Amino acid sequence: MSQAFSVRVHEADDDEEQHLKGEFYDTEGRISTNVGMQSLEDHNREIQRTIEAFRSASHTLSVRSLGSEGNSKSQVPNLQSVFDSLQITSQEGKADDRMSTADNGDGPKSVAAMAKALAAQRGEEYVHDLLKGEFYDDGGRITTNAGMQSEEDHEREIQRTIQMVRSATHALSVRSQGSEQRSMSRMQSLRAVFSSREDKEEEAKVPLDDLFDENDVPVTMTRTKTVTSLDSEGLSSALAAELLKKFGRNELPEKKKPKWLIFLEQLYQPMPLMIWAAIIIEAAIESWPDMGILLGIQFMNASLSYYETTKAGDAVAALKASLKPLAYVKRDGKFLSMDAALLVPGDLVLLGAGGAIPADCVVKDSQIDVDQAALTGESLPVTFFKGDSVKMGSTVVRGEVEATVEATGANTFFGRTAALLTGGDEVSNLQKLLMRIMIILVVLSMALCGIAFGYLLSRGETVRESLSFTVVLLVASIPIAIEIVCTTTLALGSRELAKDGAIVSRLAAIEDMAGMSILCSDKTGTLTLNKMMIQEETPIYVEGETQYTALRFAAMASKWNEPARDALDTLVHGAADLKSLADVQQIDYMPFDPTIKRTEGTIRLPSGETFKVSKGAPHIIMGLLDQTAQASVIEQCEKDVEGLGERGIRSLAVAKTKGSADGPWELIGLLTFLDPPRPDTKDTIDRARDFGVEVKMITGDHLLIAKETARQLGMGTHIENAGKLPKLGEDRKAPANLMDFFSYVEETSGFAQVFPEHKFLIVEVLRRGGYKTGMTGDGVNDAPALQRADVGVAVQGATDAARAAADIVLTKPGLSTIVTAIIVARTVFGRMTSFITYRIAATLQLLIFFFIAVLTMYPRDFQPESALEEWPAFFHMPVMMLMLITLLNDGTLISIGYDNVVPNTTPDKWNLKVLFTIAGVLGGVALLSSLLMLWVALNSHNPAGIWAKAGLAGLTYGQITSMVYLKVSISDFLTLFSSRSGGGFFWTNKPSGILLVAAGIACSLSTIMANAWPESRPDGVPTIGLARVAPKELSLYVWIYCLLCWFIQDAAKVGAYALLKRNNIFGINDVVAMKKADPSTAV
């Protein structure tokens, strides 16, 4: 509640202004931010100043509130006497300078004395509530530990001081008025505000303008028990709605782009900008049909890209919404379950075992044990008592209490931590790659089109005709949909991952995960079960006893018929056969005590035999034995404990008396327990290695425990503690000599006893060393490392702060989901590689084909004398045909997101030189075959030509146009099937059914268009359908020719791959492989 209130003294006299000076207040009377950095003496002095200031402020307010000249004149002296009696004196010479409790008979001189005076009027219980808490002792003095709190707890206590003093002084001053007239209504209002402990259910309308700063919440309808106190009895829905407007939703702030802006962005990306330039040129030369076609292309691409982008974002948002936590809140006098995002400061919530703490809260009563590992890294639960503050992101492990919400959303502890993570969006590797490819292709296209434009002008063509052809060719050749298809492919991959329990919050992280070569994994809860379990290894020291009997004896040393009292009892009760103890009687029990460190039970069996059993730390239990008679047993036990300790295994000793309850103690055995690895973890790590990913253990647990876990999982025992790792500099950045530690970090199997900054530095040094690095985490303190990693993975049960920083959020426990995600990511990477290879090849084929055709083949030179119309001076196709090629190709390519791909067994990486080489081979064969067919068709009227020798009649120019259109279209689709199979022949990798159907539809449409095109002259180019004139089977000849060329094209691709790999040209064989830590190396 510290944000909701501040007090400003209006029209105070000079003395009151002096009370508000000093480092404890700012210039306007608010508490300054450095209150937690004082000495104890200064602190107590300032507390006195606080009381003085607020007494003065409340005095001023109460006097001004009388409103009656006649009554107030007579009452002011009485008021003055009341406040004079509240003067707080300090006794000089006392070292701690605490407030004196002396009373010289003139009136109360301290908080305690004030409390006595107040108790006479309000009752002892009210005053006790007013002064309770660790901030005061029983006498109402400020305790000596007030200056040794955290800044946040300190601030909370200061607020409590302010509220209490204000409440006490106002209650005294108002009740001392004795006025029955106009001051009565004002007094009731003040009591409604300041007497927050009264048992009232009604709400009071109180004008608070003089009490609140202009920046504070404008409360006019306020619940008396919540606004002025952290001891809430619940809010009304109306007040909660008002507070929600002030404080906002209880969730981390998330930047969201409006959908209209997303659509607009699709219109001013680099590729759309080029189309806009082409549209402007077409409009300038008044080529309206071409301009209309280009506009249609522009908005169709933008709409498709918008649809895929928003669909991916909506899917991620829906999946993340399913992870929203719930809270049990008291509203309108009733407890109900609601979205934790709707909590506001002042809400009364119920915190119970197993539940997450939904906001920063103050415990109202009783006590609870809270697991704060996600916040502080502490492995053991922390007990919180009445008045303590528990933080959002932690989990209740034992107990049930009511608590008052004190901070929500970005104002909570981990909300402020998450705010430190905000920054500019980093451009992903995929975006950089696509940009490089587009720049190369655009520069090449502009260069060749520029040359063609100049050449046409030099041959006498008009500027308008030359420019129209050049612009359309440029638009057709650039990869407009390259980002759309990649986004679609990634979005489809994210949905596939979601089915396996991995929610992707950043699509480009899928591409990063495909190249990941090191995964830094937390131990507890990820590699292990996060649950202590009895191990099979059980040293026994009494003949005839077994693990089964040792567990029974251990259970007898506890209250086995009652709920487990601690973690060890829970462990034993879960493993022992408790049903067999139904007839066993426990006649005496000694619970665990920190001074004796063991439990003991006196047992009577059905047979009448009586004995004692005890369980506890081995060295304590061994102390019960006869040191001389059982020296050998003690020696063996010590060796066993030492050996287990070296492996990080904990042990619990069990002993019983022999013969009777007063007989000698004998050591039954040692129960060993450990947080064991998950059943599937070892297999998962082996699978990760099969895919070239090394898993490093990064844990805050003890070194010996980390080594034992690594040994069981086959991760090697070269585990180091964090002592040798570097530390962040004073500027909280990585040290300049960070890379000096690279070899050390690279060669280890993992690290133990690490802090969050170590995780960050481990990730940073591996990234700088050239590894794509993944990092798992679950806590607020893991957030910086998760954000810094190439792939940050928030494991199941992670805090909102960790989820916000992570790229992937797991909804299933363990590592198996991560390995599945690696396989899916590499499948997606393979699909994108196929598409990008094809897109480069298609661009080269179309662009270079027309460039060479324009420069070398002149249709008029081949025109027969019998031609009914003049052939063009240079070869080109109608704009509509070029756009159809582009649209059908891009539409088909979206289906590549569903294609079958065999994932690589090594981390993927982009190699642009190899991509352009293979694409050049594929595109080169296709364009050469297209040039050959164009030349044969143009030369079809030559009696000595190939066409005439085949017995075929000469072709019209309209037929030639349709033939080339069909050839380029079919070659493009077939090139896709060659590019998707990598270094193998196209038949080695079966395409998906969706891809086959999409390609089949596109090829069919292209064939139909080529055959049925009406006789016309679009853009001045004679065109007619192949089926409209003889030979009507001409499209069949084109198909056969395309298939033959496809086999040649595919063989050339396989040969190119073989040549590159045999000579490791362009580093095609180089992969980033993890240097395995030597498992035999011990530390």
UniProtKB/TrEMBL annotation:
- Cross-referenced InterPro entries, in alphabetical order? ATPase_P-typ_cation-transptr_N, ATPase_P-typ_cyto_dom_N, ATPase_P-typ_P_site, ATPase_P-typ_TM_dom_sf, ATPase_P-typ_transduc_dom_A_sf, ATPase_P-type_domA, HAD-like_sf, HAD_sf
Q: Annotated Gene Ontology MF terms? A: ATP binding; ATP hydrolysis activity; metal ion binding; P-type proton-exporting transporter activity
Topology with regard to the membrane?
Multi-pass membrane protein
On the tree of life, the source organism's domain of life is Eukaryota
Q: What class of enzyme is it?
A: translocase
Where in the numbering of this chain does the Cation-transporting P-type ATPase N-terminal domain appear? 213-287
GO CC, sorted alphabetically, is: plasma membrane
Q: Which reaction does it catalyse?
A: ATP + H2O + H(+)(in) = ADP + phosphate + 2 H(+)(out)
Localization: Cell membrane; Membrane
- Asked if the Swiss-Prot or TrEMBL record annotates the protein with the keyword Translocase, the reply is yes
Enumerate the SUPFAM superfamilies for this protein.
Answer: Calcium ATPase, transduction domain A, Calcium ATPase, transmembrane domain M, HAD-like
* One family name in Pfam for this protein: E1-E2_ATPase
E.C. designation(s): 7.1.2.1
Q: Which GO terms of type biological process are on file? A: proton export across plasma membrane
- Name the UniProt key words of this record, in alphabetical order: ATP-binding, Hydrogen ion transport, Ion transport, Magnesium, Membrane, Metal-binding, Nucleotide-binding, Phosphoprotein, Translocase, Transmembrane, Transmembrane helix, Transport
Chain segments annotated as transmembrane? 437-457, 469-492, 836-859, 879-902, 914-938, 994-1014, 1034-1052
Q: Which family does it belong to?
A: Belongs to the cation transport ATPase (P-type) (TC 3.A.3) family. Type IIIA subfamily.
* Name assigned to this protein: Plasma membrane ATPase
Give the species this sequence originates from.
Nannochloropsis gaditana
